[in-house]
Design brief:
This protein is an alpha/beta fold. The chain has a domain at 95-306: 3-Layer(aba) Sandwich (Rossmann fold), CATH 3.40.50.150. The N and C termini lie far apart (46 Å). The strands form three sheets. Strands 5, 6, 7, 8, 9, 10, 11, 14 and 15 form a nine-stranded mixed sheet that branches. A four-stranded antiparallel sheet has the order 2-3-1-4, covered by helices on one side. Strands 12-13 form a two-stranded antiparallel sheet. Helix 9 (204-223) packs parallel to helix 10 (244-254). It is built from eleven helices and 15 strands. The longest helix is centred in the C-terminal third of the chain and has 20 residues, at 204-223. Helix 7 (142-154) links the parallel strand 6 (134-139) and strand 7.
Length: 307
């Protein structure tokens, strides 16, 4: 039986209501392995043929043609194949593939990934841009930047510049971008389906500290945005303070507007309209919450904003 901290349980019962039991029950289910075909290096069907010849059972992720759930006896086998080392595929959680899809980068655009390392979404964006246009991938953690650079190299990404800078101060470079991915550092409470360790580090004080940082990061991103540009804000957190509260701040203080999101075949819920007596802007119903029990993936929050 999984031990869930009482304060976590009480809070998320308020958020989810009767669906809280669905959250608890899905924690007993083994999370599904997933990968993304890297079409920068290999055609989708060619890789599928190679992997099926290994006896792998693959099922396309409903919302992304290049994403696949994989059934394997040994999870470790996923990162031990020649195809993996050649960069033909990238191990990426299925819900993590959604923010780049919402960002919808184009070949001729200039894109900023403000909190990029270790590069799951950066490499997906480059793939969607077919290595054209420009991506600036920023992070403030040198160890994670090493992983970012390694992933960019292994996957054959050629259109990305890596920058080492604090995200909340990035605006001081004076650069402007068509679109910005803001996948911020968060408490990770949505990842509890994959790792129960998040419950050991979770606390309301941590959530509040992160919320303050996330607002600074959003403020920095707005200063880097071209007129009528787009920001996609995302977290793997279930906490309103890290999600709706940050977006509400962006609407009221930074002049941002929430846009509708459409991801076909994805089960999700709308953003919260209020939390703990605080009412959020009504447009937050256009943000999406992905709970672990809806698709048996990690939980995510995603919101598309226009400057």
């Amino acid at each position: 039986m999984i031990e869930i901290p009482k304060n976590f349980e009480e809070k998320h019962k308020k958020i989810l209501g009767k669906d809280y039991e669905k959250l608890v029950s899905c924690l007993e289910v083994k999370p599904r392995n997933s990968l993304r075909v890297n079409t920068l290096k290999i055609e989708r069907n060619k890789l599928l043929k190679k992997l099926k010849e290994k006896g792998w059972k693959l099922r396309q992720i409903p919302w992304y043609e290049n994403g696949f759930f994989v059934e394997l006896e040994e999870k470790g086998e996923l990162a031990k194949t020649l195809e993996y080392y050649l960069g033909y595929y990238y191990l990426q959680e299925a819900s993590s593939m959604i923010p780049p899809l919402v960002l919808n980068p184009k070949k001729n655009e200039e894109i900023l990934d403000l909190c990029a390392a270790p590069g799951s979404k950066t490499t997906q964006i480059a793939q969607m841009m077919e290595n054209e246009g420009v991506i600036v991938a920023n992070d403030d953690n040198l160890k994670r930047i090493k992983a970012l650079r390694s992933n960019l190299q292994r996957l054959g990404v050629m259109n990305t510049i890596v920058v080492y800078s604090k995200g909340e101060k990035f605006w001081k470079f004076g650069l402007k971008f068509d679109k910005i991915l803001l996948d911020v550092p968060c408490s990770g409470s949505g990842t509890l389906i994959s790792s129960f360790r998040v419950l050991q580090t979770w606390s309301q004080s941590l959530v509040k500290r992160l919320s303050a940082l996330q607002k600074k990061l959003l403020s920095s991103a707005v200063k880097c945005l071209k007129k009528d540009g787009e920001i996609v804000y995302s977290t793997c957190s279930l906490e309103p303070e890290e999600n709706e509260e940050v977006i509400d701040f962006g609407i009221r203080r930074l002049g941002l507007e929430v846009e509708e999101i459409e991801v076909k075949n994805l089960k999700h819920s709308s953003g919260l309209k209020e939390w703990n007596g605080k009412k959020f802007d009504k447009s937050l119903e256009n943000a999406i919450r992905i709970y672990p029990f809806q698709n048996f993936t990690e939980g995510f929050f995603i919101c598309k904003l226009r400057g």
